[in-house]
Model the fold of this input.
Amino acid sequence: MPSYSTSEFKKGLKVQIEGDPYLMIECNFVKPGKGNALYKCKLRNLLRNTVLERTYKGGDSLDAADITEIAAQYLYRQGDMFVFMDNASYEQYELTAAQVDDAWKYIKEGTVCNMMLFNNNPISVTPPNHVILKIEYCEPAVRGNTATNLTKPVKLETGAEMLCPAFVEMGELIKIDTRTGEYIERAKE
Amino acid sequence: MPREPEEARGDFRPTADWPLLRLRAELLKKLRRFFDERGFLEVETPILSADVVIDRHLDPFAVEVGDGGSRRTMWLQTSPEFAMKRLLAAGAEAIYQVAHVFRSGEQGRLHNPEFTMAEWYRRGDDLQAGMQLLGELAEALLGLGPAEPISYQQAFELYAGIDPHAADIAALAEVLARHGRSAPESLGPADRDSWLELVLVELVEPELGQSRPQILYDYPASQAALAQVRPGPPAVAERFELYVRGIELANGYHELLDPAVLRERNRTNNQLRLADGKPTLPEESRLLAAMDAGLPESSGVALGFDRLVMLSSRANEIADVLPFPFDRA
Done:
């Protein structure tokens, strides 16, 4: 198994600890006086989303995690499973609701997501940064109001609910930033 | 989206801004004035040398020079220590140097593999005199008041609740665990100095020099490096370090004079380096020849000039005070 030595440690490295894949989200080099080089790292578990704080000393190493990322198209939902297809190989993957996490709010049939595989098994999906979705239901717009600070709840075609400016109408398309979950603007498409 | 040409090639630019580069130049002038006023002679010694400090945790860059039969390895200096002590042995009274020095693999918020060191020695100085001079320099350059001495033992008792000269490894591991700090799994059960260093980094250093500069002194005898050991109990190394706002700024020694002791420490350090999987370094040097001929009593200090600029400006990382850090060098 390939591994990374401390001199290669940096933010963004994907490593394996006790069988789980981790993303190095922080790595600080510290060295006391004439002492051992130390690497104080924060690592996010890519299966459980928990954060681990570990200190390594110069010369230590971590196994590389076999992580690949592919473009995968969302096909359909079957009970608690979400079915995706690898756009290159047409291979299908089933993910649990926990693995899909918040992504379900922003994906509809045909949405191409970034899927992360660990040892060739899917572990998570990330929707595109921006998506355009239809408002399935909301209260009628307040006439003449174009301020964005006045908001109301809307229900999207995916079934997710979010806050939008009060001027949007049922059936309209809107652009959403999936990283923050915020409304950006009305869309035409 | 294709990157703009300007953005793509932006790393030709300095990471330090102009006010910081001007402050850097000002501090360099102040530092020289401090030593000039006290009668120190500024010297320049080779940065590329056949000799190099042998320290378990310092990795010099090796440079291959010559070709054919004259091919040999020389070393970029990790500090100008050896050459400056050779000058002391040859009659220097008080000398200082501002030099670029190199340490392989040291890169982070407070480290750049190439950095600027101010180093000085004064004949006749003992531990007290060495600490006194360092304190005066800190006050002159930083203006944060006089430095307060605190012994290694006092600091460990105050901030970690343990006696560093008596605590065993189990006690050191326990105090770290109690404060919720993780220790490297690879830290050996016999490597007491590494455990002490971990407690220092995690629990002691962050507290040092917070209200005013502090000088940590009387290190464990096992961490003497090139300092004299004063017999105990407990025996302690006459070594001292200046801390400002939790940052280690300078390291000083009441200098070791006995060449037999240095030869023994060189052997020990090379054994430790081998055990750590590191290459050994040449044990004989012209410094040993100078010590054989007779080195006068002195104290010497090395100060990280880049960190001094950081602390004068509240820059957050060393790259903020360097025109071109290692990644843009």
Summary: The interface with chain B takes residues 7, 28-38, 53-60 of chain A (CB under 8 Å).
